[in-house]
Specification:
The protein is of the alpha+beta class and 750 residues long. Helices cover 21% and strands 38% of the residues.
């Protein structure tokens, strides 16, 4: 025995502590058994330890665990064994073990699997619930029979102990319905809600009760619906999606629209069959305002009166019902002053006080007053008196007759049958008038690419816009004339400047287009006024002499119009010639060319001034040129011709003229030099003679002065000697006289 004991290896001795266990496999029987501690296990040769030592499962109070493939126990709680001595197992099944059923630690028998570690019981609060589905037929804790596949909800509060017959589908938290909100639900299948109302699958409804709400098993939470607070200034416009009865017990038809105001409810939550079209702001009218509502809603008929119009005056506040609209918004009462009036038109026949108005009839009401138009009246426009200065006017057309007249120099208020008429002018006239208004009427000469002088009309300012209803005015410059033609009377009138031209409705300006530049080109200068002169114009004339010398002569003409302002026919003649500048220059150029063609180049070069004057003005009976040239067609008078330059056109003629001019200059220069030398010599001789004469005269004067000096010196010497003798004698006499006076006194003293 001792030998046997000593032969046992320490590796085969397994000490199993309390609350521990091992699994031992018997290789002979191929059965695995369990050994539970506390114990000392000696492993035999045909045995094998397959698991352990392992801790037993300990369940605390109110905890559970889930065991897969649990063993079969008898009524005494002990494991049931198979005929082979193996513990019987319920394969594919599971078991929930709690601390109440297993207060002591327990091991896992071979084949058992711990699928869920020990966990605490699930505590479901008051506003929570659990959704279950039955995995097999059984009776729940409440004794209600459940079939496999059944679903149900268990509402808290409770402590949930898991069971193998049921499975948790989801946890449900109560949805809190806040004030001014509702909960929108949808039915998953046909059911009854908490109020016992039958619901069809897919049907939606609202729960309005404030607080926590736990959806039922077949209810789906769509989401919360916030309410809209309604005030005196805000309403809600709704549309029905289908036939239903709203929360206010009013039947609604699909597509119907209506308003919910604060008079019906302070708060509105949109129903599932309602659609919010939008919020409607209140329309407020003061005591000075009014409006016209189109297609007003009739509460009695519960529909809109389409085509009708309703006048609403302030003070008032209202909401526009669906289908209603404001014709022209909120309008102020028309307040008319003394110089104001309203032009009205009747929309339909009605009685206006004592007057019967027909459709389309127009009339006016004048101020001062206040006016609110009834629905039968349309305000066309508000008219104000137009004050006109003496030099201002407007064009007015009579709608009934079509007659247009101008009103000037007084305040005018258009009548009901009158309207302002716009006078159209040609573009060129518009430009010229605008140029005068903007101060760009004066044109500066410019030079083109070839060096020719051109006159470019400046365009007026683009910002200037003429009021076409105002009488067209034009300031005629000083010493000018403006012609106006009346197409209605077929008469013309001429206005002389300085003065203001005011155009009648049927009148148009006579546009003057004159030639300009050198040589003259047509339509270079455009104007509305004709300058009466005196003025001048310059032209370049190409002529040819009898010996075929071609010359370019630049001439300047002084001119003026010679007419009688009192003679209407004489005044009209001023505008008979379309382009008096071009016509006069062409006529004078023809005369000059004719005169030059009959003389040679040399004669023309010597006598061009006299020749041209005779050609232009003609001869008097005494053979002298006439004083002026008068064009009878338009009374244009040429008073003088000035030759500014004469230049040959041909190169050979220019060279010949240059040589002759150079030779003439040399001859004149030499002559001037000889004359200057002769004059200088003569002046030199005269100067020498005058110098000699002057010297003789100076010598004579010097000798005379010397003689006079000697005479004076002699005279002075004689005067000096006689004076000295006289002085000596006087001194001796005075001395003797003194002695004679002093001698008696001295004698007495002695």
């Amino acid at each position: 025995m001792a030998t046997t004991t000593s032969s046992i290896s320490t590796d085969n001795i397994i000490r199993i502590a309390p609350t521990k266990y091992i699994h031992v496999l018997d290789n002979n029987s191929n059965i695995t058994r369990i050994e539970i501690g506390p114990a000392t296990y000696i492993r035999r040769e045909h045995e094998k330890i397959v698991a352990g030592p392992l801790d037993m499962i300990k369940l605390a109070p109110r905890t559970y665990c889930r065991i897969e493939n649990p063993i079969v126990t008898g009524k005494d709680g002990k494991p049931v064994l198979t005929p082979f001595g193996e513990v019987k197992i319920r394969y594919g099944d599971s078991e929930v073990r709690t601390q109440e059923n297993y207060p002591d630690p327990f091991p896992l028998y071979p084949g058992e699997v711990l699928s869920t570690k020990p966990e605490k019981f699930l505590i479901v609060n008051q506003n929570q619930a659990i959704r279950f589905v039955a995995t097999r037929d059984f009776k729940d804790s409440e004794g209600q029979a459940r079939n496999a596949g059944d679903e149900w909800v268990r509402v808290g509060p409770f402590t949930y102990v898991p069971r193998v017959e049921e499975e948790i589908v989801s946890y449900i938290d109560a949805v809190v319905i806040k004030p001014n909100t509702a909960l929108k639900l949808r039915a998953r299948k046909d059911m009854k809600d908490v109020n016992g109302v039958e619901r069809k699958s897919g049907e939606e409804w609202l729960v309005y009760k404030t607080g926590a709400y736990l959806p039922q098993i077949h209810e789906e939470v769509v989401g919360p619906i916030k309410g809209v607070v309604l005030t005196d200034k805000k309403a809600l416009r709704l549309r029905a999606l289908k036939d239903f009865t709203d929360i206010y017990k009013i039947p609604r038809k699909a597509g119907e629209e209506w308003l919910v105001t604060n008079k019906l409810s302070q708060l509105h939550i949109k129903d599932v069959y309602e659609e919010i079209v939008g919020e409607v702001a209140a329309t407020t009218l003061s005591n000075r305002q009014y409006t016209v509502v189109l297609d007003p809603f009739d509460p009695k008929l519960n529909m809109n009166r389409f085509g009708a119009r309703e006048l609403r005056k302030g003070e008032a506040t209202f909401f526009l019902q669906p289908g209603e609209s404001l014709e022209n918004g909120v309008q102020s009462i028309e307040v008319l002053g003394e110089d104001e009036a309203l032009l009205l038109r009747a929309r339909e026949a009605f009685t206006d006080g004592k007057d019967q108005r027909l459709p389309g009839e127009k009339w006016m009401i004048r101020g001062p007053r206040e006016y609110i138009p009834p629905t039968q009246v349309e305000i066309i426009e508000k008219r104000r008196s137009i004050p006109l200065d003496e030099n201002e006017g407007i064009y007015v057309r009579n709608i009934n007759t079509g007659e247009v007249r101008s009103i000037r120099g007084k305040t005018h208020l258009l009548e009901s049958h009158e309207e302002l008429w716009e006078k159209e002018l040609p573009d060129v006239v518009e430009d010229l008038i605008a140029a005068q208004k903007t101060g760009s009427a004066y044109v500066a000469p410019q030079t083109d690419a070839k060096g020719n002088l051109v006159y470019a009309q400046k365009r007026p300012s683009a910002n200037y816009k003429r009021d076409k209803t105002r009488v067209v005015t034009f300031r005629a410059p000083h010493n000018s004339a403006v012609q106006l033609y009346n197409f209605k009377t077929k008469e013309s009138r001429v206005v002389f400047g300085p003065g203001l031209v005011m155009l009648e409705p049927d009148e148009q300006f006579t546009v003057i287009r004159l030639s300009g530049g050198k040589p003259k080109q047509e339509n270079m200068i455009t104007s509305l006024s004709l300058n009466l002169g005196p003025d001048f114009m310059t032209d370049v004339v190409i002529l040819e002499t009898s010996d075929h010398a071609r010359l370019s002569v630049q001439l300047c003409y002084n001119w003026y119009f010679k007419f009688n302002k009192e003679d209407k026919a004489d005044c009209t003649k001023l505008f008979n010639v379309k382009d008096f500048v071009g016509d006069a220059c062409k006529s004078i150029a023809s005369r000059v060319r004719g005169a030059a063609s009959s003389v040679s180049f040399e004669d023309f070069h010597k006598n061009n001034a006299e020749l041209i004057k005779f050609a232009v003005f003609g001869k008097k009976p005494d053979g002298t040129p006439k004083d002026e040239l008068l064009f009878q067609t338009n009374n244009l008078c040429i008073t003088s011709v000035d030759i500014q330059s004469v230049e040959p056109v041909d190169e050979k003629t220019r060279e010949s003229l240059q040589k002759s001019v150079t030779l003439a200059i040399e001859i004149a220069t030499k002559t001037q030099e000889m004359n200057a030398t002769h004059v200088a010599n003569k002046a030199q001789q005269e100067s020498a003679a005058e110098l000699a004469i002057q010297k003789l005269e100076d010598q004579t004067a010097a000798e005379a002065a010397k003689k006079n000096l000697l005479e004076k010196e002699a005279e002075n010497a004689s005067i000096a000697s006689s004076g000295q003798a006289i002085a000596d004698a006087k001194a001796k006499a005075e001395a003797l006289l003194i002695k004679s006076k002093l001698f008696p006194k001295i004698h007495l003293l002695i």
